[in-house]
């Protein structure tokens, strides 16, 4: 796990400046405090910061050169099945000189080229410079677990694990209007675009090739829709799921350093823990965030699970000044205004875990693969939403936050928009009424993913929403996990996102996901003999926090809320119709229905003040 960055001047006579490359590289020091390296040859330069997980010796140093000196690679991630390739490489005349997956990746590339990608089980973002053909190849893993950003600026291609390295190199920090619109309506920018003008992401499952003269080609090396369509029927789904999940866990325990578990106490992370115990892993440390508010707290369940399996348990709460400080830090590591609102908690949790472990397993992905969010339930009978929209005018119904959200969601009439805005907290009609913003974002990437989802699962809004989220919402969660854990120099691994599970679950009939009261049926069925009833039947909480109370009642936020109500943000043309003083006053009076409207603006205010000002 590392931070990678690079510079390719598209004019071959222009030399890469060492000082600038080092500056970019070291802006990512938190991603790799154990080692650092650079490679420069005329107009190409790679930088690397290393967090040593596999082969912690200097043999895993990067950038990594092939034995014939033709290829140079900088790579971030883990290939969990790398040892499987030893016999094949040896039989083809390659000597294995390290116990690092980096070497295996390079030699597989030398042997098979990019066809090797389909055989990798792992998470990765990598760049390879071909000295002979004078071309740079950048690749991202199937689900986008590892980030990779880039920019073309001043006839130069810059890339890095985080946007801050691009800004450090001199790429201007400028908000893109389309990105801003998507942030407001959809909570985050999906696809290759970002909040920033001229800063893009390499899409998950994609390869970009940049030739020295400036020619750029992009190809999709992994297509989930095609993989699901080509998946043979799985005969015994429960047995298949349990065996594949256990194997995924086993693969993700490959490490030369200690591995721990992010344990919320919910079904997903408890399933990870139960699999570890079933496979006789000992001395596992678990890490939990607790809340003093009972409705947000699952700590007692996490503690019960850790004790049941005789694993270590560490918990903490994040409040007041500590919460405020972690919010500022999380915003810096995130590079954009935070939107899940759990980023400070995850960062603090990772910092607590750091003295004990270098790797954390997470339950991320289970909800998007198996239908774990309550918001999917609204799509079961879309015709009922019209009735709810009418009933929703009753005050009695809308005083409950969840019902209030449902009645607002029910105002959406188009099926495509029911899917596209399913993961939002506020909806187009709300935004028009409260913000005075009427024009919807273009959402071209989201519309394309919806189109794919609709063709794969016709007339099935719930399955469409899952597929849609796997390409949008889940990507933002993975980015959050990566930034928050790497902010504390820890690697995060997601066992549910093993490609075998992602494809197999996508091919199942609805009954394996949506049966039962709380859905995720196959996971509960597979784990029913390993988990206690309290876990299997507990109401889903998730890593949520009462932010409305935090910012309006906590002394640490009092001054910030005052500053926010007078923020320069509301001088921007896009936000000029928002009466922010009124929204804040209503929140201070205890109307927590204001929270979803205030939080994206408040987090953007924090970002402008603490992040944008640095560049």
TrEMBL record:
The active site is at 2 (for gatase activity). Its EC number is 6.3.5.4. GO terms for cellular component: cytosol. One of its GO terms (molecular function) is asparagine synthase (glutamine-hydrolyzing) activity. Pathway: Amino-acid biosynthesis; L-asparagine biosynthesis; L-asparagine from L-aspartate (L-Gln route): step 1/1. Signal peptide: none annotated. Keywords: Amino-acid biosynthesis, Asparagine biosynthesis, ATP-binding, Glutamine amidotransferase, Nucleotide-binding. It catalyses: L-aspartate + L-glutamine + ATP + H2O = L-asparagine + L-glutamate + AMP + diphosphate + H(+). Pfam families: Asn_synthase, GATase_6. ATP binds at residues 262, 289, 362-363. L-glutamine binds at residue 101. Residues 2-213 form the Glutamine amidotransferase type-2 domain. GO terms for biological process: asparagine biosynthetic process. The record marks 364 as: Important for beta-aspartyl-AMP intermediate formation. InterPro entries: Asn_synth_AEB (IPR006426), Asn_synthase (IPR001962), ASN_synthetase/amidase (IPR051786), AsnB_N (IPR033738), GATase_2_dom (IPR017932), Ntn_hydrolases_N (IPR029055), Rossmann-like_a/b/a_fold (IPR014729). Belongs to the asparagine synthetase family. NCBIfam families: asn_synth_AEB. This is asparagine synthase (glutamine-hydrolyzing). It comes from Flavobacterium fryxellicola.
